Protein: CHAP domain-containing protein
Organism: Gluconobacter potus
Amino acid sequence: MPRFFRCLPLGLLVVLAACGNRYEYSRASFNGPLQCAPYARERTGLKLSGSAASWWGQSAGRYAHTHTPRPGEVLVFRATSRVPSGHVSIVRRQVSDRTILVDHANWEPGRIDRAVPVTDVSARNDWTLVRVWWAPVHSLGKRAYPTYGFISSHDSDDAS
């Protein structure tokens, strides 16, 4: 057998390994310069800081809290082992009783994603457990993420 054919399997393996999976992320890649909280703060005008998960407690008494999504409101994800600092997304629009479209930063590392589907999978239909679109699989992600609810960008005195 010619040498070329004996090396072909090894060559193919090297080529395939070099291609890599462009959707393989390390935990560290989520800690880059683009973060969800500063993005949401800039877009909504909410005067909140710190980790995304802390926004719910910080906003109590300052901004209205709700479990009904409205455009411009911020969906606050709880901290978990998968998202240790929590996450925040801005509601773009409601598609159905259980699906909204959001804009957010760094759900996929280093990206701003717009009009991303988020589906309520909570037992009480109160948006306390959601699944989020995951572009690498072109579908909702398999994991469900706990949330606190929505923060309105209006002061709590202004909310009806």
About this structure: The helical segments are 3-19, 36-44, 55-59.
